[in-house]
Write a structure and sequence with these properties.
The chain has 254 residues and is of the alpha/beta class. It has 7 helices and 8 strands. Helix 1 crosses helix 7.
């Protein structure tokens, strides 16, 4: 059993809302959030954007990691590279990795050295497999993709902290189906989409919902190609699910 020798002041806290118990911390004092996605299960920009909002909210540097790229043929890889280019243009770091072929692993190791990092993402994207590849001999339990649902199976049930002999720490967090953000206000979520910031305050009406409102500066930027239509769609989906979750929580308390 371990012995706690000291408790450091908490900063850079990554949190998530709990349906019954308010906001819970996932990890603290971390330098970067590694947002792990994969081509299997299907690459989800919605999940990536949710984690980017969380990272922007707490001002922790994110890195987008696409795993299992060995499963892509040339056509599929070109399509996903096009999707990832949206994030590169926003100055987010993007890394393509394969535990099978070894692609990108050395670069990933370099980015983790001497930093406290956390792997986040859905179940089945290969977070535990990446941990095993980075630390041979560790033998972290890994899971498989369900043939029925196409979704990953939970193998990591609690966050685990691993130390790199060469320097640095890695937290492997449990996989989730959807990362909730309903503890944030709508205006804060809007601000956390970094490409929106130049247009905020430019709408015709102060209470603009950025949907079909006349004179919406964000909608005009989307129509002009200055803002990704996919990111804009994900933004509204986040707001919708946030409202649904809050309503469900209120109903559960009645």
């Amino acid at each position: 059993a371990g012995v706690i020798e000291a408790v450091h002041p908490r900063h850079s806290v990554l949190t998530r809302p709990d349906f019954y118990d308010g906001v819970k911390p996932i990890a603290a004092n971390i330098d970067q959030i590694i947002i792990v996605s994969a081509v299997m299960p299907e690459f989800s920009t919605n999940i990536v954007d949710r984690y980017l909002v969380a990272a922007e909210d707490v001002e922790i540097r994110p890195l987008i990691l696409l795993n299992k790229v060995d499963m892509l043929d040339d056509v599929a890889r070109a399509r996903i590279e096009s999707q990832l280019e949206t994030y590169r243009k926003l100055n987010y770091e993007v890394l393509l990795v394969s535990c099978e072929s070894g692609e990108g692993l050395d670069e990933l190791k370099a980015k983790l050295t001497d930093k406290i990092s956390i792997f986040v993402g859905q179940s089945g994207v290969g977070k535990s497999s990446l941990t095993n590849a980075l630390m041979p001999g560790l033998d972290v339990l890994t899971g498989e993709i369900s043939e029925n649902s196409g979704l990953g199976q939970h193998t990591t049930t609690t966050a685990r902290l691993y130390h790199f002999p060469s320097g640095g720490d890695l937290i492997d967090s449990p996989g989730i189906r959807e990362f909730a953000l309903w503890h944030l206000e709508a205006d804060r979520i809007t601000w956390c989409f970094v490409e929106f910031r130049d247009y905020l305050g430019g709408c015709k009406f102060r209470d603009c919902t950025h949907k079909d409102d006349p004179g919406c500066a964000l909608r005009a930027a989307v129509d002009a190609g200055a803002i990704s239509a996919d990111r804009f769609h994900n933004y509204h989906r986040i707001l919708e699910t946030m409202q649904e979750a809050r309503h469900g929580r209120q109903q559960a308390r009645l």
